[in-house]
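Slide 14.
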Amino acid sequence: MNIAIIGGGAAGAYAAIWSARSGNDVTVFEQNGYIGQKLRITGKGRCNLTNNCTVDEFMEHIPEGGKFLYSSLTRHTPWNVMTFFESIGVPLKTERGRR
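Slide 15: predicted structure.
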């Protein structure tokens, strides 16, 4: 299957790698110079990927109308994201505020 991903930030890179590992042909369209460019400046240069919390804790900080996220977040939790990036060699560190 051919997959097009718009945006090469954390979510786009994650989706691209996940999809390619599933056997798909993936193309990432990124307007910046390279994939992950904005990640370098998030968290004051520390690259925030997700929060180290439960789905319920995460949902407490979503403004009204965020209930539509619950289904996808319970299928793919912040823990899944952290485990994935660690599995491809990205060391992670949880900082204050569970960032």
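Speaker note: The CA atoms of residues 10 and 49 lie 6 Å apart.
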